[in-house]
Amino acid sequence: MRVYLKNRSLLYISGSDSESFLQSQLTNDISKLGDSEIQINAYCQHQGKIIGLFWVMRYQNGFLLSFPNELLEKIKSRLEMFVIMSEVVIEDLSNHLFQIGLINEKKSDGYILNTNLSIEISDTLDKDPDDFGNIEEWNKSYFDSSIPEVYTSTSEKLVPQMLNLDINEVGVNFSKGCYPGQEVVARLHYLGSAKRRLFSFKADQEMQVGDSLYCSTSKAALARGDRYKGSGMVVSKVKYNSLFYCLATLDVDLIDDEIKLNNEHGPKLEKINDE
């Protein structure tokens, strides 16, 4: 199935210093990115909190960064602040290149995200946008892959470990050089296991990105009472076949407890067991 991903923007980073520039800004090791691969990268601020989460792809003589549309202005302006004397050009190609998500399909010139998903980049659409596959199919397949997203409501609120980006170094390389927030991210890694992680849930009512996870038995809830602001956060959400799914952060010691959305009267979230 081919799905037109019109909800994602594309920045093109080119110039003789483009690779070293991205290596100094992002959490993963750009030098290890293959020509037909998609690499997950976090773009952090100095406190180690994620501003945006990118798909990074080699394209022509530079790199493409793909991420949700709503973060375009914020990401582009911030990256431009750090170009300084580098030979780097940052262009918005969101209206010039099209991103097509492929589910259980492969193209020789496509980019592989994982076993089931890949991306096609094209300067034309070979059919009307409405004739592509249902975006819900892509969203559910993406959710099933446990790949998180960062949106405006969650930008600068999460560190990479909360999104499981450190596990198997899928989105963070701990051997590469410095990048914004690197000291904080590395310190959390070497101090031991993270206290808050990413989990999959489902519910019979809709949730919103940024909603909090409520647990009445958590130490924070018992100690803070009305000042308790939750033990996690909804990071991404999907509606599929009349059910609602989400990826959400949660304190790891609460995973076996009853979790509700936003408050004690909110809908119950059911954890989806890892296969």
What is the topology?
Blueprint: E1 2-4, E2 8-14, H1 18-25, E3 39-44, E4 50-59, E5 62-68, H2 72-81, E6 89-92, E7 98-103, E8 111-112, E9 117-122, H3 135-144, H4 182-191, E10 196-203, E11 213-214, H5 219-224, E12 232-240, E13 243-251, E14 259-261, E15 268-271
Antiparallel strand pairs: 1-7, 2-5, 2-6, 3-4, 4-5, 7-9, 8-9, 10-13, 10-15, 11-14, 12-13, 14-15
Number of domains: 2
CATH top level assignment of the largest domain: Alpha Beta
So how many helices? 5
The computed structural class is alpha+beta
3D structure, described in words:
- The structure is a single chain.
- With 275 residues, the protein is of the alpha+beta class.
- It has 2 domains: 2-144, Alpha-Beta Plaits (2-Layer Sandwich), CATH 3.30.70.1400; 160-271, Beta Barrel (Elongation Factor Tu (Ef-tu), domain 3), CATH 2.40.30.
- The protein has helices at residues 18-25, 72-81, 135-144, 182-191, 219-224, and strands spanning 2-4, 8-14, 39-44, 50-59, 62-68, 89-92, 98-103, 111-112, 117-122, 196-203, 213-214, 232-240, 243-251, 259-261, 268-271.
- The strands form 3 sheets. The protein has a 6-stranded antiparallel beta sheet, covered by helices on one side.
- It is globular, with a radius of gyration of 19 Å.
- The two termini are 24 Å apart.
